[in-house]
Amino acid sequence: MANKWLEKLIKETIEKARFVFCFTCIAKEFEEERGQHAKVAIGRNKDIQANVDFGEEKVDKIIQEDTKTKHTSFFGFCPGCIWRYKRGKKLEKDTVEIKRQIESGKKFENVKPPCRLQDVERYSNYISFKSRESEYKKLLHALKDDNNYIIGLQGMGGTGKTRLVNEVGKELKESGQFAHVIYTTVSFTSDIKKIQDDIAGPLGLKWEDYSESDRPKRLWSRLTNGEKILLILDDVRDQEPLLDFDAIGIPNWEYHKDCRVLVTTRSKQMFNKVNMDKTIELKLLSEEDTWIMFQSYADIINSSSNNVIVKGRKIAKECKGLPVAIAVIAHSLKGQQHHVDEWDVTLKSWKKPVSMQS
Q1: What's the CA gap between 153 and 266, in Å, rounded?
Q2: Among 29, 62, 94, 134, which residue has the fewest nearby CB atoms (within 10 Å)?
Q3: Alpha-carbon separation of residue 52 from 28, 42, 55, 103, 303 (angstroms)
Q4: What superfamily in CATH does domain 130-281 come from?
């Protein structure tokens, strides 16, 4: 019983003392919370002044009162135990008031943090190839160059454009080069609304109370508000009508500020049709890197039989350096090291000519 009573006493003492020594910390918590809500409001293009300032007057009054008391109490030090207790009780009341201001739902409803989609993430099974180092570095350098706005990456279907841009985008995000790295697939449909939604989600934009004609203006405004944003438009096709940046809300070169656009395409003709500042061609994998990727996906290890390794190399060679072909075929053979007939069937089927058309 004595131990329980002592524990209770200590707990109550610590609780009371916390309000004496942590008042400044709690006030700082309010400032940080207010700043966070302000950032969210900026992201949503809101007029935040009324929302942010609503509690300043009341909280500042509390803080100023605390400061005055410190000045009249020998620079914040007061020897009176009774005074300390009363002050602690007062601080407790003030703390509740500050937190009430912070947590007031009605007052902060216009700057409530929206549910955001995630920015681009790294592929967990991404493999770095020697034959890709040059393109990777070129792409990274081009996106870091403030003189470039639209950068194009061209390569055949299945060459690994999507994985490469995701990897580069992830590095740029992690290094702090861009606040947001946003990915959207364009493909054949060129669905403007879908593209707008893909971009708006990670930025916290909401379309409520906005007409279809207002969407491009709202998105344009968000993309030019000063944050460094990288948009990755994947698989843009050379077809009529061409992808309309204005209809989406993507700013033009003159007004893009810190926004940047990375376009991947299968067609070199896109380089001429879209005014790109920098273009990079992604070639097929080298024979060495093809085998490295094949081994990884087929789970071939050094202890595998020579027969499997020989057949595996032949099958890998027939994939013609196309990462998508290597991934599909090698994965289908995973766990089949003891079924050589499966490898024979695969090799025979791949002996037929592989189309290199996009």
Answers
A1: 8
A2: 134
A3: 15, 11, 7, 13, 65
A4: P-loop containing nucleotide triphosphate hydrolases (3.40.50.300)
